[in-house]
Amino acid sequence: MRQRSKGSAQSKPSSIPETSNSEDTVVLVAKRSKYVILALFVLVTYGTWSVYQHQFLNLPKPLGAEEVGKRGFSEHEAIKHVKALTQLGPHPVGSDALDHALQYVLQATETIKEKAHWEVDVELDLFHAKSGANLMVGGLFKGKTLVYSDLNHVVLRISPKYAPEATENAILVSSHIDTVFSAEGAGDCSSCVAVMLELARGVSQWAHGFKSAVIFLFNTGEEEGLNGAHSFITQHPWSDTVTMAIDLEAMGVGGKSGIFQAGPQPWAIENFALAAKYPSGQIVAQDVFKSGAIKSATDFQVYQELAGLSGLDFAYADNTAVYHTKNDKLKLLKPGSLQHLGENMLAFLLKVATSAHLPKGKATDSRGKSDQDTAIYFDILGTYMVVFRQRFARMLYNSVILQSILIWTTSLFMGGYSAMVSLALSSLSLILMWICAIGFSLLVAFVLPLVSSSPIPFVSSPWLVVGLFGAPAVLGAFTGQHVGYLILVKYLTKTFSRRNVNLSFVVQDDLAKLDAERWLFKAGLMQWLVLLIMGNFYKIGSSYLALVWLASPAFAYGLLEATLSPARLPKPLKTVTLLIGLSVPFLLSSGIIIHLVATLIGSAVRLERSPGSNPEWLGNIIIAVLIAAIACLTLVYLLSYIHISGAKVPLITVTCILFGISLAMVQLGVVPPFTEDTARAVNVVHVVDMRGANGKKQEPVSRISLFSATPGNLIKEVEQIGEGFVCGTDEPLDFVTFSVKYGCWSDKNANIGWHELDIPLIHVENDTKGDNRVTHVSIDTKVSTRWTLGINTDEIEDFQLKDGTEELVPIGDKSNADGWHIIQFSGGKKAPRKFSLTLFWANNHTHKSQKKDSNIEQPLLKLRTDVDRITSPTETVLKKLPRWCSLFGKSTSPLTLAFLSSLSIDF
């Protein structure tokens, strides 16, 4: 037999046939140039970053009013609104600044009304929402009831003057004016409000040709639990006419505003893809958001679940580390950000508002479920958006899966026992690759807190993760795969020695190496096939990525490499096979991967929802595992090319050097973990604690509490602040909605800045004992219109909350979380402060509620009232707070002054 190898020029195989009358001898050298591998890594790195830049960083030019005329969108005009709103400072619910922000938006909408096209009706409503309760139980709402009162919204409806039927079929565009108490809100969400105002100005010049009205809702109360959207849907008369909802949000400052939730009806996303000038949206983001990995919610959840509407949810997601901190400011808003969203939205509204096919009716049932054929969507380089429906996706995925299984079955049947063993051993190389990649990265995750001043030293410089976690992950992936490769080569050498006894041992060894390389490449196909099967079974939208990572390399391999003949001797894989096979997968996934990792790194600033509850290395582990998984998934094909090349030593050397430099920079403090623009989330709360009173006379205990939602101790911060702070886990604090197990506290001057008349009261009015025990409790929150109440559901079966004679929370099934149901209340200045609570005890109550793993008895009720007041000792601490720290706000966190009270079970 004569076999001549014809490998690619880049691979540089040699095949020297030596002929004689008796037998032919084949000489093969299994070797690939290290420079080819180097070029491939450079190409992958440069190409990946280029895709990310074009897809997420390439923003349009901001336009002025003269350039766009009356009907276009101008960022220069929109940015004026952002400046005006941010100059007011933080404007949370109940603040004077929010009243000023509402007046500004109201005046801006009145100007739009005055200048609207003469054939367009512009109706303006300053809507005052009465008290209400959000009883949704999904996601973050499990175990909670969100109660609100005295909220004001600006509602603008634009419709054609001579088509009154259009007002019965409206498109809602919504965002919120209010901010958290710690941020001026340039991104979240003054940028959204500014875009809406400029959109409304443009739409007011186009609407005479509309078949549907457009309602712009500028709501308040979103930051306190989506209360603005809830009050509009449940109380405003125009809400019944809405058939589609568009929500604008921000999880950072600027950049491209992309769709991260769509549906359930696919009509909106399909038309957006057709109309948008700069389409941006990824179903990957929707999958991540709905998985609960990101602990957040938007008004879109209210529109979907409560109102049964379909639509789109947009969000700015650049620089997520500044979310809800002082750094959510105008100077970090990138030029072109508003232009990008504004032009996309204007084109979309013009298309759907003039359409006669706008879907009508409920998109979801009362549980937020839908039987719609949902859409799968993604953009390509921010230029073109692909949208197809789930039904088509399942057909496509099933077809590819069946064909793949058929090809694998045929290949294994023809290859026989040897092929099955080779597949098993190549699968072993995959397992070893994952184990080593994750293992190497996890080792770094555990080491970092020991050598760095912060457990997450990469937040202000996200590129550090390339060296800290990326380099170990790549090294681990290659090490694991190489061990599997050596085992596979050993087996294949024996196989070739039995089949080709006339070949020399050297040739048999080289043939085994070449065949092992091919099996490793095909193992990558098997990896993605398994993921596609799983994604298809669970109907995961982002399964299209598994499809392209399977189909494209498989096509290239089948076109250039594959043979079903088991007798044919293997050849080196062609470099062009890799280039063709990976071009489409990297094009579609590179930008998404980098953006996802950047978002996760930014979110590490607020990882600790209950400070001190998790080990310091937890955030590192999450990022380490993610990066290791990305390395194993995306580099599996490329790594298979290295084993017969001279690139093994350079690869190990480069990854070790990269890791060493990154670790040294962290250890020596060359790159600070936080900066003034990327700050650590730290909260300073003046706490007045009356939990031990239980209705008896007791002197209140007051102190200044310092805690952080960012992993790591506060020693460095406390050293700079001074003021007698002591840190540790000795005095945990229960803030009702979360607990602080590690924090710092000081009682220096803590007795000033508040008055005993500010302390809330919980009083038992009457208690009817027996099998159906009922207790009536009065609650007076005194100066606070923002409070949280925990009700012990181990003892209490149901409850009713009233504001005087008005029922706020009715009797009925209540969800609970960890044995508690939480009422969160927020309202304006005129919100009530006195409430009556009726408690219906469980028939089998034992009065033995205890903390898990503790002998401490739990109270029946626990109350925290918040006051947006900076006392003099708090002000002193805030002035000395390091510049790399920032207060962090969320709906469940206390303001700068908090009163704690409780009611024992045995009152």
UniProtKB/TrEMBL annotation:
<keyword id="KW-0378">Hydrolase</keyword>
<keyword id="KW-0256">Endoplasmic reticulum</keyword>
<feature type="transmembrane region" description="Helical">
    <location>
        <begin position="651"/>
        <end position="670"/>
    </location>
</feature>
<dbReference type="InterPro" id="IPR048024">
    <property type="entry name" value="Fxna-like_M28_dom"/>
</dbReference>
<feature type="transmembrane region" description="Helical">
    <location>
        <begin position="35"/>
        <end position="52"/>
    </location>
</feature>
<feature type="region of interest" description="Disordered">
    <location>
        <begin position="1"/>
        <end position="23"/>
    </location>
</feature>
<keyword id="KW-0645">Protease</keyword>
<keyword id="KW-0472">Membrane</keyword>
<keyword id="KW-0926">Vacuole</keyword>
<dbReference type="GO" id="GO:0046872">
    <property type="term" value="F:metal ion binding"/>
</dbReference>
<feature type="transmembrane region" description="Helical">
    <location>
        <begin position="617"/>
        <end position="639"/>
    </location>
</feature>
<keyword id="KW-0325">Glycoprotein</keyword>
<dbReference type="InterPro" id="IPR007484">
    <property type="entry name" value="Peptidase_M28"/>
</dbReference>
<keyword id="KW-0482">Metalloprotease</keyword>
<feature type="domain" description="Peptidase M28">
    <location>
        <begin position="161"/>
        <end position="348"/>
    </location>
</feature>
<feature type="transmembrane region" description="Helical">
    <location>
        <begin position="463"/>
        <end position="489"/>
    </location>
</feature>
<dbReference type="GO" id="GO:0006508">
    <property type="term" value="P:proteolysis"/>
</dbReference>
<feature type="transmembrane region" description="Helical">
    <location>
        <begin position="576"/>
        <end position="605"/>
    </location>
</feature>
<feature type="transmembrane region" description="Helical">
    <location>
        <begin position="428"/>
        <end position="451"/>
    </location>
</feature>
<keyword id="KW-0862">Zinc</keyword>
<dbReference type="InterPro" id="IPR045175">
    <property type="entry name" value="M28_fam"/>
</dbReference>
<dbReference type="GO" id="GO:0005789">
    <property type="term" value="C:endoplasmic reticulum membrane"/>
</dbReference>
<comment type="similarity">
    <text>Belongs to the peptidase M28 family.</text>
</comment>
<keyword id="KW-0812">Transmembrane</keyword>
<keyword id="KW-1133">Transmembrane helix</keyword>
<dbReference type="Pfam" id="PF04389">
    <property type="entry name" value="Peptidase_M28"/>
</dbReference>
<dbReference type="GO" id="GO:0005774">
    <property type="term" value="C:vacuolar membrane"/>
</dbReference>
<protein>
    <recommendedName>
        <fullName>Vacuolar membrane protease</fullName>
    </recommendedName>
</protein>
<comment type="function">
    <text>May be involved in vacuolar sorting and osmoregulation.</text>
</comment>
<feature type="transmembrane region" description="Helical">
    <location>
        <begin position="395"/>
        <end position="416"/>
    </location>
</feature>
<keyword id="KW-0479">Metal-binding</keyword>
<dbReference type="GO" id="GO:0008235">
    <property type="term" value="F:metalloexopeptidase activity"/>
</dbReference>
